[in-house]
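Worked Example 4.2. Read the sequence first, then its structure tokens.
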Amino acid sequence: MTTLKTRLQNDLTTAIKARDELRSSTLRLTITAITKEEVAGDTARELSDAEVEKIIAREAKKRREAADAFADGGRTESAERERAEGEVLAAYLPKQLTDEELDALVAEAVAEAKAGGAEGPRAMGAVMKIVNPKVAGRADGGRVAATVKRLLAG
């Protein structure tokens, strides 16, 4: 069993014992998503920590999107719950890049793409190929894409 999945299960046990309903339900749903991914396909397999991290990031993104949808619909109580669940999951993800760090990484990638002959807005794909492995899990894809567009345009 991966260390991250083990940590999630140990934290779930602790949350259940402490009667922390929010934390325990969030961790249960996340562990279920991980298990579902492990048994998907032809053969069951054990996921690596990186794969588990991607699933946690996907679950956190679902919480952010749901919180926004609830807030837009005027259901503030549900939106707060989703945000709180997102914060629980954020503890298991790598620290997010600051805007300055992201700008620096994207600027490097833009320079590298220009050296390879890619210019202007059409270079977006080339820059994203370079920058995505560097920021994997540490910045939301939409945020990265917006930064790339801004730096390519300006």
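Now turn to a second chain, presented in exactly the same format:
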Amino acid sequence: MSTGKPALDIRVDVQHTWREDESSPLENRYVFSYTVTVHNHSPHSIQIMARYWKITQSSGQVQEVRGKGVVGKQPMIAPGQTFRYTSRAILDGPVGFMEGAYTCVDTASQRPVEVPVDVFRLATPNQVH
């Protein structure tokens, strides 16, 4: 059933970097920083209310992280604007995967909207798999 209202057009880009200076392979500690940019291409402002991350470790262990907002904030993103933040993930091996979603609110309708974050690979340099 269509309401005739345009769908929210929100895009999420993620860039990541291995933090060799903070990692300790001998201790199975691989630190990655990741920068998320949320682009609001919709006609309404949105507010990021919560986040969900699924982190798959090299060992196969899966960790789920849920929380309010991002980096201690629940940012409002106006139409045509972006919000960017950087965070970290610590893996138990040189390769892992992250995926997730943001729960946003369309400020015009006060309706919650789930914005998925596609799976992305975290890997130290020269990893084949």
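Notes for the reader: The radius of gyration is 17 Å. Residues 10 and 95 are 28 Å apart (CA to CA).
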